[in-house]
Write a structure and sequence with these properties.
Blueprint lengths: L2 E6 L9 H12 L4 E3 L3 E4 L12 E11 L3 E6 L2 E6 L1 E3 L4 H15 L10 E5 L5 H9 L4 H7 L4 E5 L5 H9 L7 E7 L13 H10 L3 E2 L2 E2 L4 E2 L9 E7 L5 H6 L8 E7 L7 E3 L8 E14 L5 E5 L2 E5 L6 H6 L6 E9 L4 E11 L4 E5 L11 E2 L6 E2 L6 E2 L5 E4 L8 E2 L18 H4 L8
Parallel strand pairs: 2-6, 3-15, 16-17, 19-21
Antiparallel strand pairs: 1-4, 1-8, 2-4, 3-4, 4-7, 5-6, 5-15, 8-9, 10-14, 10-15, 11-14, 12-13, 17-18, 17-20, 18-19, 20-21, 21-27, 22-26, 23-24, 24-25
Helix pairs in contact: 1-2, 3-5
Length: 441
């Protein structure tokens, strides 16, 4: 039996990061216990209005390790090892105070929106809490009821973080990715990060198992945050063993510490197959384009599918040109988050399934009697010569079929505009497209 530790909501928009707290917990807890498996970074519903940034919680497992350990990080010059399996009963009360000291030391209590919480459990929370937490809105009451008697739970300043902390322990990976997160020395927090963009491109090309490192469309480094948090950069990928050598390829500011996390990032776990636009969830549905795309003030592009407004917002950049190329009658599959006001689906991915022919009239029919071009008498009503009043059918006009500029495939925004949980197209292999991955109800 191992102990499950979940923590959430310790950061704020002005600083800190819950994953940095994970490195502090790992450093302290591994003096007396072994780390079992990778630390986990669990992203929850990205549509929660009160989330800080990426709505990520952490989960650690400790006990007595079994099997061959492997290097998964380095903190304060000490190698962090993790074991594939573990055992030994650990009393939550023996660890809770140790966790509390670190949560209280590093949480951003000056920010009234920060409501830290942690859980130290003898067994993980029921899996259903994860699926509820990643797709909908969980209440603290439901969470506490589900883990009653399993261990110690503490919250601060309202304790909303308890929800994410418990939900993080409930994740049973059906898909998983990994991320090596590197951290800055304390004196550099809040200063400009110094990373060589060319080295990021070189690393991205050398390690195809990684993803979302660089935005080639906008020539921008994506793996480094733009906030004043302790993170230097993070490299995400499908193969854990690739991450450390990938990290060594990055030139510039050197990390003070690093740690590899097992994550649900890039899995689309937040997506529900539904055409019901319920606010604060991400849906996936298919249908014909019912209304031509329209560009709104601010550069947002909106169209309609099955009576539901779908919007590609300005930050999605070049992705909007794909959306503008759609026409009524095209069949598409939409993945996006439902926004409450205005009620619309914020487009995350788009699959064009089929395209209609779009024709353009280039010349009205010519009257053979007087040689004049006939004039239209109304949509679908044909043409009439103004001189001799001869009538011509609609099909007599000269038309061409125009090139659409898009094909029948998946499209996504540039890397800098993607959500943590959204599955990038490079991960959408034939196996994933065939839906071998489960979609729990």
């Amino acid at each position: 039996m191992v102990l499950w530790i979940g923590v959430d909501d310790t950061d704020s928009l002005s600083g800190m990061c819950t994953t940095f707290l994970a490195t502090e917990l790992v450093r302290d807890l591994t003096r007396d216990h072994d780390l079992i498996g990778y630390p986990r970074l669990v992203r929850l519903n990205p549509n929660i209005p009160w989330k800080t940034r990426g709505n990520g919680a952490i989960c650690l497992r400790i006990g007595r390790g079994r099997g061959a350990p492997q290097l998964i990080g380095q903190v304060d010059g000490r190698s962090i090892m993790a074991y594939p399996r573990g055992h030994r009963h650990v009393d939550p009360d023996d660890v809770a105070d140790q966790v509390a000291v670190l949560v209280e030391r590093w949480s951003c209590f000056d920010d009234e929106g920060t409501q830290p919480g942690f859980a130290v459990l003898r067994q993980p929370a029921p899996e259903g809490l994860y699926w509820k937490g990643v797709r909908e809105i969980l209440s603290k009451e439901r969470v506490l009821s589900a883990i009653d008697g399993r261990g110690v739970v503490r919250g601060y300043q309202g304790g909303r973080g308890v929800i994410g902390a418990v939900a993080a322990t409930a994740w049973r990976p059906r898909q998983r990715t990994y991320e090596v997160l590197t951290y800055r020395s304390r004196g550099r927090w809040g200063t400009v990060r110094e990373l060589d963009p060319l080295s990021v491109v070189e690393m991205d090309e050398a390690f195809p198992s990684t993803f979302n490192n660089y935005d080639y469309d906008n020539r921008r480094v994506v793996l480094a945050p733009r906030t004043p948090c302790p993170v230097l950069y993070g490299i995400r990928g499908d193969v854990a063993r690739d991450l450390r050598p990938a990290m060594d390829r990055i030139r510039g500011e050197r990390p003070d510490r690093w740690l590899i996390f097992e994550t649900n990032q890039g899995t689309d776990n937040h997506v529900v197959r539904s055409s019901s636009p319920k606010p604060f969830r991400t849906i996936r549905f298919r249908g014909p384009v019912a209304r031509a795309p329209q560009t709104l003030p601010g550069g947002h592009v909106v169209f309609a599918v099955r009576g539901i407004d779908v919007t590609a917002y300005e930050p999605s950049k070049q992705f909007r040109s794909i959306v503008r190329a759609l026409a009524p009658g095209d069949r598409v599959e939409v993945v996006g988050a439902v926004r409450d006001v205005p009620r619309t689906v914020n487009l995350e991915k788009l699959r064009v399934e089929s395209l209609v022919d779009v024709v353009r009239r280039i010349e009205n029919p010519v009257c053979p009697t007087c040689g004049k071009h006939a004039k239209s008498v109304g949509k679908g009503s044909g043409y009439r010569c103004r001189v001799c009043h001869r009538h011509f059918g609609h099909a007599t006009a000269r038309e061409i079929t125009i090139a659409r500029g898009i094909g029948t495939r998946w499209y996504e925004p540039p890397a800098s505009s993607r959500r943590h949980l959204s599955m990038p197209l490079k991960r959408m292999t034939e196996t994933l497209q065939a839906e071998r991955v489960s979609w729990p109800a």
